[in-house]
């Protein structure tokens, strides 16, 4: 059946941090906490994020996304060697600055081929959506980067109360664009949440694996086995794949 809708993951698929996250955290931390090792921040952020994602999936925490990210920021700073007393004093200023930065193009940019790809899909009459394990700030990011006007729907885990790989999030997405799973494709960088999740929901899954520095933020598993996985290196491949779909 021909593809009528393409859903995209957000982070590391259509948008990416303008500078590495640990660099941006370091810039905000420095006036309050002194010079922490960027590499220590990088490691601590990755560890802290995974912990909180496991403990509180879909931003289900009293205080919502702001409280969720405050805990990530706190654990990241402590893990990177920040003085706890200084950190607790500075958190009320650090958290809003980071939350604001990552709510716009100050913190993010699109990959070079994104707008061209989305515009081409629109010309082909293909519906476009974003399905992302993210909080509501991604809406303002997509708007600021001129992506939102090209989309038919946006589903974010904070707003839906569920997250990928739960197939229910794609059921909702399909309902909102009036398409069946057989008419849908999902593109993302996480082999479990995006690829296996959308495959289990009976969509056509595509895994993105960019070459070079821009691809370093992708969710890659050590020693991942991509045998039998449909992989692309740029979103520009999507229109041709749709054209060639029976």
Automatic annotation (TrEMBL):
MF annotations from Gene Ontology: phosphatase activity
Signal peptide range in chain numbering: none
Gene Ontology CC terms, in alphabetical order: nucleus
Entries under InterPro entries matching the protein: HAD-like_hydrolase_domain, HAD-like_sf, HAD-SF_hydro_IA, HAD-SF_hydro_IA_REG-2-like_cap, HAD_sf
Protein name: HAD-like protein
Organism expressing this protein natively: Sistotremastrum suecicum HHB10207 ss-3
